[in-house]
Specification:
The chain is an all-alpha fold and 252 residues long. The chain has twelve helices and no strands. The radius of gyration is 20 Å and the shape is globular.
Length: 252
């Protein structure tokens, strides 16, 4: 919710005071929010009965299913980053929409995900073909990114909605299957951190490549290539015969 509101406000502030100053303000607000959370969120009591051994950590980091899920999450993150980051500027500077309307359309990426994520969570344990859901979600995100290349406000809005709806489902199923991987319950947080680290660490290049294509060839080709290298990271799980591991009994 905060991300959607922030995207909307950022577009308005950026149009009023300039994008560079708006980015500085966003960074300052992020630091203030971090300090606020640090001071006000209660601390968890340390768990003394859990000891992570090196073989256990190696088993988690080398788990093939977790690596495939991390790769899918990387595709999700690339598509989300491109749409959420560049849609506002694209609508405002290239298509001539107002800052408020541009920010409102851009925030649909976040708000649509908030709508589908709880629904996906409700049905997660009932769905057997988790791999299919991840693949379809990734392809939908890639198609959503490419839709923006049609260069109309309606197409860009459809892009934001498609990416948001698919992301809500995809992220829920991806993190859900990572949590229910073949690890002990006490190690599941590490499995989640691992797949999340893959998507965050290895997606840094996508905005740079997108910007390079925009400067050299224009937004339309940038959106098309963005959809292409989003879907590329879906291929490993499509080609792999690896299936989600069966749920283990909950440890007390």
């Amino acid at each position: 919710m905060g991300g959607g509101i922030g995207l909307f406000a950022w577009a308005i502030v950026g149009d009023s005071v300039g994008w560079q100053l708006s980015l500085a303000l966003v960074g300052a607000l992020g630091l203030v929010s971090t300090v606020f959370l640090f001071l006000n969120v209660p601390r968890d009591e340390p768990t003394h009965d859990f000891q992570l051994r090196l073989p256990d950590l190696r088993r988690i980091l080398s788990d093939r299913w977790l690596l495939l899920v991390g790769c899918v999450l990387l595709a999700f993150n690339i598509g989300n980053t491109l749409d959420a980051t560049f849609v506002e500027v694209y609508l405002h500077d290239s298509l001539g929409l107002s800052a408020g309307l541009s920010g409102g359309i851009g925030s649909l990426v976040i708000f649509c995900g908030l709508f589908t994520a709880p629904l996906a969570g409700h049905f997660h344990n009932r769905v057997v073909r988790v791999k299919l859901v991840l693949v379809v979600s990734g392809v939908a995100i890639a198609v959503g990114v490419a839709l923006a290349s049609l260069a109309t406000p309606v197409a860009v809005a459809a892009s934001a909605v498609t990416v948001g709806l698919a992301s809500g489902v995809g992220y829920t199923f991806a993190f859900g299957t990572a949590w229910h991987s073949n690890t002990q319950r006490a190690e599941r947080a590490i499995a989640l951190s691992w797949v999340n680290s893959i998507q965050l660490l290895f997606s840094f290049w996508a905005p740079y490549l997108f910007s390079f294509v925009v400067v050299g060839y224009g937004y339309q080709l940038a959106w098309l290539t963005g959809g292409l290298y989003t879907v590329v990271f879906i291929f490993p799980i499509v080609l792999s015969r690896r299936r989600p591991t069966q749920l283990q009994a909950e440890m007390p």
